[in-house]
Design goal:
The chain has 509 residues and is an alpha/beta fold. It contains 20 helices and 15 strands. Helix 4 packs parallel to helix 6, helix 13 packs parallel to helix 15 and helix 17 packs antiparallel against helix 18. The chain is globular and about 75 Å long.
């Protein structure tokens, strides 16, 4: 775990530095602040509550992080989602990764009713990747209008270029702040205007901050400089009200530092998931539900910094009893309007004749149905493996939990590498037999090794976060703090207690 954590920390440090030293210096020479210094001035406590997917883009041709910063932050006592271009990385140009991160941040804002603050300075789309950007990129503008229509405030601070489609970021925001002599927005820049209508015009004449403040009306506030723009944006956010404080609760009795040693290096080695729970929840107190029935799924209630939560956590493969127990527990949490934490270390559902005769399909479907139709907030923490339909049954990304957080030890795939390679070998062998062809054992052995190595490399936590399958890899020792942010931000947007919001009573499956 320590070596994985060190690798991830090194990558996160690389992202935090922004562009090359020369690029950062050129940015400063223009009198501009680097993006993280802007955010430090914007946010309370000079930092984020939780940065979202900072290593997105890993393993792709996009820059690490996508040239963008997204985070849940506290501004004037109010949790907000911040989305900020980093102009020191390829001019802040949009990439497939930056669009994926932007849309996910807006999804989090919408689901949890968090205001969105966007810090704009982008050269527009990376034209080399326009085929992967143009269609999905339009969704961010639709999302902005939907947020506004839903009563969720949006604020744009324009520090530099906001051109072409990017001009709609301030254009579709509820509040706009432009930096004088720095921010500008236009649909077509001076070269395009010259080609289209033979008009010679400068950037500031065409779409400068002063023009938009005095003539077009696009700029609601005109700032003297970047710190002034941030001050004005904070004043705007201060009118949105503050969230109720997190109640607070006793620290776990068991040392969270020990979480680094809880999950074995070998994912095939079992461990007791209660060792994780006891190092996260208040006072290490966990009121377990049905501890003797379906023991491979641990269910129960706890408090996280004073907030009551239900917990479903894997302690092995899922059989029918575990599926029935999980579905019942989810319905109980819905009856209480209690948010749920899913802790994943799941190899999937049981297979074989006995399991099929015992109804594993219909029982597993009950659990997945309960997860899909539950109306209380879900947060998913992936600590070990997450294979097959077990990922779905434990509120994987496809089931829209409020946040998906992972540990460096996490692995995700349709099945383990050895199993998948073995299945493919059996398929090849049967295909050869059906065609009366000789089966090449040596070639098959080489192919099995190649398949297993490929699946192992494609199932790591870094591979998953690089493709936006989660909201970030966290240090296990920081799990309690990260989960507190996740559940605290969801409190303003969850069903009120009093009746089962999912529209069904509590079934004893």
């Amino acid at each position: 775990m320590e070596s994985l954590l060190a690798e991830i920390q090194g990558l996160q440090d690389e992202v935090a530095q922004g562009g090359s030293p020369a690029s950062v210096q050129r940015h400063r020479d223009r009198g501009k602040l680097p993006v993280r210094e802007r955010l430090a001035l914007l946010c309370d406590r000079h930092g984020f509550l939780l940065e979202l997917s900072p290593l997105a883009g890993w393993g792709t041709t996009d820059p690490l992080g996508g040239g963008l910063v997204t985070a849940i932050a506290e501004v004037c006592g109010r949790a907000v989602v911040v989305i900020a271009n980093d102009p020191t990385i390829r001019g802040g140009s949009l990439s497939p990764t930056s669009i994926t991160r932007t849309l996910r941040a807006m999804d989090i804002a919408e689901t949890n009713r968090l205001p969105v603050v966007t810090l704009v300075e982008s050269g527009g789309a990376d034209l080399d990747k326009q085929a992967d950007i143009f269609v999905p990129g339009g969704e961010q503008f639709r999302r902005l209008t939907e947020l506004s229509a839903a009563g969720i405030p949006t604020v744009s601070l324009v520090f530099g270029s906001s051109t072409a489609g990017g001009a709609y970021l301030p254009g579709m925001s509820d509040y706009t702040v432009f930096v004088k002599d720095g921010g500008y927005a236009f649909l077509g820049g001076p070269p395009l205007v010259k080609m289209a209508i033979d008009e010679d015009v400068t950037e500031q004449e065409l779409g400068g901050a002063d023009m938009h403040a005095r003539v077009s009306g696009l700029a609601d506030y005109l700032a003297a400089d970047e710190p002034d723009a941030i001050r004005q944006a904070r004043a705007v956010v201060s009118r949105f009200g503050t969230a109720p404080p997190v109640p607070g609760g006793p620290a776990p009795l068991h040392d969270p530092d020990e979480l680094l040693g809880v999950v074995p290096d070998d994912p095939k080695t079992p461990f007791d998931i209660r060792e994780v729970i006891g190092r996260i929840v208040d006072g290490s107190v966990f009121d377990e539900f049905k501890p003797l029935y379906g023991p491979n799924l641990v269910t129960g209630w706890a408090h996280l910094n004073g907030m009551p939560i239900g917990i479903l956590a894997n302690n092995g493969i899922l059989f029918s009893p575990e599926s029935q127990k999980g579905a019942q527990f989810i319905s109980l949490c819905n009856q209480l309007s209690m948010p749920i934490l899913f802790i994943q270390n799941i190899t999937g559902f049981m297979v074989g004749t006995a399991a099929e005769k015992g109804g594993i399909i219909k029982d597993g479907a009950k659990l997945i149905n309960a997860v899909a139709n539950s109306q209380v907030p879900h947060v998913t923490l992936m600590v070990g493996v997450s294979y097959g339909a077990g990922n779905y049954a434990m509120a994987g990304r496809a089931y829209r939990p409020r946040l998906v957080l992972t540990w460096p030890s996490h692995r995700i795939a349709v099945m383990g590498g050895r199993q998948l390679a073995g299945v493919m070998s059996i398929v090849r062998r049967r295909s050869a037999e059906s065609k009366n062809r000789e089966f090449d054992e040596a070639a098959d052995e080489n192919q099995r090794a190649e398949d297993e190595a490929r699946i192992e490399s494609e199932s790591t936590a870094l591979y998953a976060t690089g493709r936006g399958w989660d909201d970030g890899i966290i240090d296990p020792r920081h799990s309690r703090a990260a989960l507190t942010v996740a559940f605290a931000m969801s409190r303003d947007h969850q069903p009120a207690p009093g009746r089962p919001p999912a529209g069904f009573g509590v079934f004893r499956f």
